[in-house]
Write a structure and sequence with these properties.
The complex is a heterodimer. Chain A is α/β, with parallel strands linked by helices. Helices cover about 40% and strands about 15% of the residues of chain A. Chain B contains six helices and eight strands. Classes of the chains: A alpha/beta, B alpha/beta.
């Protein structure tokens, strides 16, 4: 026993220095991934179909090469876009009792705007000469309009915003049952306000 | 009394630093888990546009990154100022996009291929033409999920 007590302690004072060196090395060589962006889904190439779309269900956005925006034939500042898109989608132009009536729409039922969110299509015409940053701005405002509508309906239905539910769904460590419930809710809201954005590229505009 | 005084004067115990390495190791492991080592060199100018509604890219493994922009400073004399596309670590011309993206897709683990997403990291000064062509190329190989990568910020600054 006495032999063990005599054994000198190993000096651990330099261990901290070594660990610090490693830490600093990682701090220098690595970067925290912070990528974020606007998700978009392009239509598949094969199924190009033609469909009759009523004029009221089509919301036309035109960009020109100098970076101006035209909404339904009128030059509009970008800051107005989100409000106009929301009004168009959430219009609810069919009277109660008729087929296609939108029970959750908060719009005014304008005769020139969409019948219901399922039929509402946004057509975005982009010339090749337009700036990418302007295009991103338009996409952001469209996404913003849909997000706001989805959040509103999500709060009244489930008491949580659409974005919160999506975040919880994507987070790791959620129980499978909870995930299924969330998935059902997310799908329901996506069906209530489906994103229908048509992109048309123009070369001679 | 006298023994207490001598204790105060001479034998003040040193603060033990034995747990310091542990603390530093915890920090180290934290950084090792949250961080990814960036071994890709971006060869184009890459100031991303601003957006407020951006969603986080959740996984890293199922993403194909495509950079678009003018060649960085110093290379203009060699490469000119026309916008270029960078996929992986090389410049790729428009008709090579499809085959290169497919190769990236093939390198992915199989269960992630279905949910593969293309992250377009385009400089905010470029024109839409190159983006539209790029989208068409990706459409031809059925890569339909696209993310326009942005930075959080006021969108209306993009227009100015």
């Amino acid at each position: 026993m006495s032999r063990f007590r005599q054994l000198p302690e190993v000096n651990a004072g330099s261990m901290a220095d070594i660990a610090f060196l490693l830490l600093i090395f990682f701090l220098v060589t690595a970067s925290i991934p912070t990528d974020e962006g606007l998700h978009r889904i392009t239509p598949p190439k094969e199924n190009r179909t033609t469909a009759e779309i009523k004029d009221r269900n089509l919301f036309e956005l035109n960009l020109n090469r100098t970076g101006e925006l035209m909404v339904e034939g009128e030059t509009t500042p970008f800051s107005e876009l989100r409000k106009m898109v929301k009004a168009f989608i959430d219009n609810g132009g069919i009277l109660p009792g008729n087929s296609g009536y939108c029970s959750y729409c908060a719009g005014t039922g304008d005769a020139l705007l969409s019948e219901n969110p399922q039929k509402a299509i946004i057509a975005l015409r982009v010339p090749r000469e337009a700036d990418y940053s302007v295009y991103v701005t338009v996409q952001n405002e469209l996404q913003g309009a849909y997000n706001e509508l989805r959040n509103e309906v999500s709060i009244t239905l489930y008491g949580a915003t659409f974005e919160e539910m999506k975040e919880e769904y994507n987070k790791g460590g959620v129980v499978t049952e909870r995930k299924e419930v969330l998935q059902r809710k997310i799908k329901k809201i996506q069906e209530m306000y489906p994103q229908k954005i048509l992109e048309i590229s123009t070369s001679n505009f | 009394m006298s023994s207490l005084r001598t204790f105060r004067k001479n034998k003040l115990p040193a603060i033990s630093t034995a747990s310091l390495p542990d603390i530093v190791f915890i920090l180290l492991f934290f950084f090792m888990t949250v961080v990814t080592i960036n071994n890709q060199q971006i060869m184009v100018e890459n100031t991303l546009p601003l957006a407020t509604e951006a969603e986080r890219l959740m996984k890293v493994d199922n993403i194909i990154e495509i950079y678009v922009g003018k060649p960085k400073d110093g290379q203009e004399t060699l490469l000119g100022t026309a916008p270029r596309i960078q996929l992986g670590n090389t410049f790729v011309s428009m008709d090579q996009i499809a085959s290169n993206a497919l190769r990236e897709l093939y390198l992915m683990p199989e269960h992630l291929r279905k949910s593969a997403m293309v992250s377009i990291k385009a400089d905010k000064t470029i024109k839409m033409g190159i983006i539209l062509d790029l989208k068409e190329e990706l459409q031809s190989i059925n890569l339909l999920k696209i993310n326009y990568t942005t930075v959080q910020g006021d969108v209306f600054q993009n227009i100015e």
